[in-house]
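My current task is to audit a protein record that another person submitted. Thanks in advance; the entry in question is below:
***
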Amino acid sequence: MLARSSDAHYFVTANGCQETARQFREVAAKHSNVTVHENGSNLGFQIPHHRQFVLASQMGCQYCLIANDDITVPEGFLDTLAAPMDADKGIAITGPEGTCAYLDHDFHGTGGTGEPEYIEGSCSMFRIDALRKHRSTLWCDGLSFVYSEDSSASLYLREKGYRIRTVPMHLEHARSVTVNGDPETKRLCQEAQAKNHEVNRKRWSYYLSRRTFDFPIVIRRWYALGDVLLVTPIVRALAESNPLSPIYIETQVPSLLEGNPYIRGGAESIPKMDKEMRINLDMAYEHRPGMHIVDAYAEEVRKHLPGLGDVEHRTEFALSSPVPREERLVVLHDGPCNWPGKKWPHFEALKTQLRVTGWRVEMMEKWGKFSGAAAQIARASLFIGIDSFPMHLALSVGTPTVGIFGITRARYIMTNGSPHVAVESSESIASSGARHRQGGLTFLPGGDDAMASISVENVMEGVKKLGL
């Protein structure tokens, strides 16, 4: 539906009723801006409404109106509904005053006062590009047939930072005519309502307990430098899914995250805040050893915020200034590391081989500040190292990376911020990948035989695969 009545195209659906279909066809024969869809059976509200939303999107419409066929609207209602969105791009849904606009804790619509929590679906206008920015569907996943799709859609767009508005307009609405039309339809509607309310109570439990979308989120990952850096993909995804919520990180190394644009603040201890949500990622991946660390973090976060979207495996470190890359400079990191299964004993031989093939070799320096370590790696055109913090740092600043893995496996650890190759010990060695077969551990002894089995030639082959 376009903003103005003169620009509107009407899609009307006969939902399994032949008499309704006949009447709609008569109207469409007289008006070129009316399209009739005839369903052979009652498909509920959600399927016809979503189809109309898709068609309106394909036509390039700015707004899409969904409306029941048991309402009577006043003259100029499209202009009235469109006016707030014409004036303010931050408004994503409008509807008339005087309908259910609030939710009880069981997700039933009720009356109330103040700013509306949702726009009731019997007559509501959506800003199409607001939804399309985040998903391709009109309604949230997991809902069926009829009921609570309207409240869920309103909460979704409010979660993404948009606002909703009611307008001074009265509708006559003969409620529940469809629902009470026959016993079978009533049964289907009641079953759908119970199911949809259950889905929504789970999806929006955090909202029902707080009644706001701008609550602080505190993420805790206290220890392990690389594991703290691996929180940054989660922070970025949270900022996209919950843009109104300031994000704080509670960690032993807050300076590691300085300059991250998605983080409001970091400290060893974050004071308690009103309506806050705290999510503890300590031991999150240790208890999920067969899952990528970022995915393990995401799974834990989704227990609290089910609306967290896809999380890209890309870490971020904020360099204070651009660092020019130096051709044929390789930085190596051999430790320290207290895991025997991560130590590689052939770095001296690797240095010789790299120099023979024209590389300038630097060993990873000890650093007082993370910015110094990041700058050293960022100016290199190649990084080679064991599964440790500097490898994660290299991937975060875009330096091509060769990672060496024995007791751990790259598919659970490496991220996609830069070109990278994993050189791994053979699966035939018992300790290869042992880290990912035992849960609940922060340290695994042994495994040095796996790393020792990786040759200098294996590593040099990894360099060649990077095309360097």
Remarks:
- The mean pLDDT is 94.
- The CA atoms of residues 284 and 297 lie 6 Å apart.
- The two ends are 55 Å apart (CA to CA).
